[in-house]
Amino acid sequence: MSETARSRGFRGAAAALGFLLVLGLAAWIRVAQFADPLAGGELIALDGDCHYHVRRIEAALQGGIPTFDPLMNWPPGGIAHWADGFDLLGAWFATIAGGGRSNPGTHVAVFLWPVVLGILAVWATIDLARRLVPRRDRASPLAAGLVAAFVPYFVDASTIGRVDHHVAEALSILVLLSWSLRRFPVEGEDLPGIAWEAVGGVAVWMALWVFSGGEFYVALAAVPLGVAALASGGGNRIVGSGAPALVGGAILGAVASVPSMRVHGRLLSFVFPSLMQPILVALAGLALGAAVMAGGRSGSPGGWRRPLVRLAAALGVLVVTLAVVPGLWREVRAAIEGWVLHRDPWIASIAEFQPLFWNRDTGRWSMVHVDSLLGPVGVLGAVALPLGAWVAWRHSPARAASFAMAATVLSAMAVLQIRFVRIVVPVLAIAIALSLRGLGNLLARLPVAGRLAGATPLLGAVVIVLSSRELRSQVHVGSAREVPAFAQAVLDLKLDRPPVHGRREGILVPWDTGHAAMQLSGRPVASNGFGSYMDPESFAEVRDAFQGKERRLVATMEKHDLGHVIGGGFVLSKHLAMPSDEGPVAGDPPALNVKFMRRTPMSQLLIAGSGLPAAQLPHLERLMPVRASQAVAGGLSFPLPIVWTYELVPGARITGQAAPGTMVVGEIGLEEWGRAHRYRAWTVAGQDGRSVLAVALPSGFLTHTIRTAPTWRITAGDAPPVDLAVPEEAVREGREIAVP
Known about the structure:
The protein is of the alpha+beta class and 740 residues long. 50% of the residues lie in helices and 11% in strands.
């Protein structure tokens, strides 16, 4: 074997080993925090959307995805607006990896599904970087994969238990861009042909199937194809232009959307999987094909007539289609205004739709999100983008221009909405690797550093990872944790059979906790993480229920056949008004701020429904506390559970006589987890001297977390107090009990 062949073999083996090490590190980082979803022996998804994806995957394992879900928007039910691909693929993976539909390993595999996609996304990052450098450069693609593997927000999108389609979005755009760059062959590559078109058709279909907004990612890959068609001096070669891939992928996407459309009944919708998304992609393919065909005999190869005719043909297809398909442009405009520019009130309230540099906590522009989500890669990537494009230009100007265009658009979207930061991470990592390659090219001119020049990208990536605490700390194994307080509350309400209308088996929770409540308890909710996209009226009712008085909240529960409400600081913190000059805690030792409690709607949910007679804060008359979390709020001098579960009851009525206008106060001892409190209820005697004190808390009440004293103590003005038993049956049946 010659020295050259031996050297090539060594470099090839080293590159293969490096590739496996990068993917191994990516896998380890994404499973190192296995304790997060495995809390207290329970497999619990990491956020609301993840809970609903788990619900859909579990349903698919049993034979079908619930496009119509009877447990949301209870009691009529609601329609999920997510595309089916991510969940169906997850179910197939879980069945294969778990060894069957009902094995315990199957459910573990569901939580590992995003990890698999994350590893594939790192692989796709390496593959995309390979398209931008000479074939002999093995270090730059590995450097891009290594950097991407460690970026916090990219890791978070694909960590164990993060069962969400965002990682599938990132994977789809990487595959589409890598496929698109093959349109511009470099030395040693053949012209794209039918196989390339077939691969592109599958990539387009998958982008539409895993995400209802996948047409945006397809557009980023299609624009360079259109530019190539306009600038090409060749004839009408359809195969190899990308047009068949776009049209074929659109047809597959339309077929994949049929099951959802049969349920929601909308042919064109930017919210639901519909014909809108495949029509837009097919439109791009037809416009591209028209441009290629129109340029066959128009002028000389170097003249201006050919690209002009091609552009006119493409625009003609676009204009005719928008005119022929009614409502298409209206949906496109609604998507841009409501979703992309987040002008929809519900979308505007979601954290991940906020601008990258806007800090909602302080109300000011800042770099806090850049630092926490990207670590040093945020600033380094922004600086490296133009440098990386310049380095790629020397290899292939067409590929460099295509990459720069996609990187610029994705970066702009990331600045506009935090959710796109996950998608832009691989692009930034590639730009950093390309910039390090440029540095290596400079070092190659130096006699001493010349031998290390080729390894500069990989060495630089290692330095970036090791020098950043945010990046390197992710290799540590996470510690075990308890079941989150809210999750435990809904698990304690778990229903092992389908809910029945009329039995008030639903739960009232804020919309952003609805997915978790449904998936963990099996009980229905009125509003969930689909917000106003599911039912604007129900969404508004649930939102307003927590912002008014008890009467409004009870009316919402009765209308939607709900029997329990979960409240407390954990659930209500984002819904309570907390001015900076007068927060919920005041005094020394720190206690609840009475002024804050009085002006905050439903603040009684923070304290078991108790009232504050001295502060004129009424108690809750229809909501009986049945469970308290063991976890307590910080910053107070006494233990206060952060989550309370209440049951809707008629309430008992304690009647008596007192002087007109006299305050009648009822007080009872309440213990939660052995921690003692005083629960207070009060009313004022009427002009006829009659007092009616409605209470929802029985005496002698016992659950596994709550215990009350044997009797209530009723006091009216200066009269001697009276001890009175209020049995649970009286509270549940709405009985009247007279004070002796």
